[in-house]
Give the backbone structure.
Amino acid sequence: MPYVVTQSCCADASCVVACPVNCIHPAPGEPGFATAEMLYVDPRSCVGCGACTTACPVGAVVPDTALTPEQEPFRELNAAYYDAFPHADRTPLALVPPQRRLRRSRPVRVAVVGAGPAGLYTADELLQHPEVTVDVLDRLPTPYGLLRAGVAPDHQHTKEAERLFRAIEEQPGFRYLLGVEVGRDVTRAELDERYDAVVWTVGASADRRLEVPGEDLPGSSSATALVGWYNGHPDHRDLAVDLSHERVVVIGNGNVALDVARVLTADPDDLARTDVADHALAALRASAVREVVVVGRRGPGQASFTTPELVGLAGLARSGVVDVVVDPGGADADGAEPEGPAGDDLRSRVLRELTHRTPDPSRRRIVLRFLASPTRVLGSDRVEGVELVRNELVPDAAGVPRAKATGETEVLEAGMVLRSVGYRGRPVAGLPHEPVSGTVPNEHGRVEPGTYVAGWVKRGPTGFLGTNKACAQEAVEALLDDLDAGLLEERVTSTEDVRRLLAARDVHVVDLAGWRAIDREERRRGEAAGRPRVKLTDPVEMVETVMSAGRRGRRGLSASSR
């Protein structure tokens, strides 16, 4: 009974170490591990012991006998990886490298700016060394970054990676300084004075623009903002979202675009069992949206979405949750409809299957539209539609297919246009900035001795949740190299110096106990509503929740001491 990985996973790689026959790859240190969409179980080597299932923090590994119809394609996806990469030289057990130890045993204090996945993976790597203590700062009162505010609410299994981060938080030497904005509440120079090193993991918070006329009309927004809106991010909870029109157009066809399309066409009763924000759930219940068109400038073979996300979308179509229609780019020269993408790989076959599905007009619909680009967003006072130009694929000098406009245009009526064409990093005060990539220039995570970067601010907005683990490991290696080389000056300030500085400025710092109080309150409200949690979206309410829990704790302590 072989086991099967059934989703894009967190790349924690606990399953790799747990496997007694080394049948899960790519493993840490192997080519492709840092960029793989997921890990894969070799069905020919798997002995069916189930150790991987026990180790997986997000429930992504299941026995092949327990696969649902929607998960069935993952059986082939796992096996196909080993057809291409047999890993014939694998060792009987996964190799675990020896833990590095510092050459000099002295206290080392590190600040990590950003409490998202990259920041917490960085803290985890640092805390493997008992000499190191870590303060993790974030401007929001809540941690976890895109895991909390970016993962779609219908992907609750992915959010189970929170258990990994909870384990990191509970390690000795870990401390949160949440609700602290670097640049406003404390400067980079003040951090540099108080820590041996500072690692910046601030992500890429800006979205790329379309640069077409009408882009700034009301009703034209970024998919990033909409994701934050339905996930309860404090920056986007007041976003004006008008769902009174039957059609929404999303420009770009990466995983975020598919997330938005699924959420906008989902049954609100299904979303009511998730942690979707209350204000978004109310708006989605009243929504008139019947169709979401996801537009990609190139063909199906060049689409940005990953195979696991496409398989999941096709599963929803097969189960009748939503219609999924593929428009490969219009009729061919003879006027006949194209047969869809060529190729015998799973991705191509799924797209061909969707191309030939018979639409059901009674269902909400997601249209995957290829070979089209926006030329302008239409409307007078607000969005009324979008003009698209049809493209053709023309290979460049290197043979890479590029989209070339044909000049043939059409208009799609729509009440909302969302751009989902990538993220950009904003400049960080006091750090160098590379405007083309939106990153901080670095060498393997090192900006200069004492200053390091990890995550999207280091490599750009690429990869998956688990990609941040390998990225953090590289940055921490650079930090440790500098520490061993004597390049980091030892600081003489106390561990409480930053807290005293923030207190003097009347900054309400949320520590680990405070975050736990917010978490408990959200889960308490969720339990009452039959949901995983009901998120607090107002930072003021979050701080009040923390302060209220603190007062109750002090009363309990006083009572217990009498």
The longest helix spans residues 539-561.
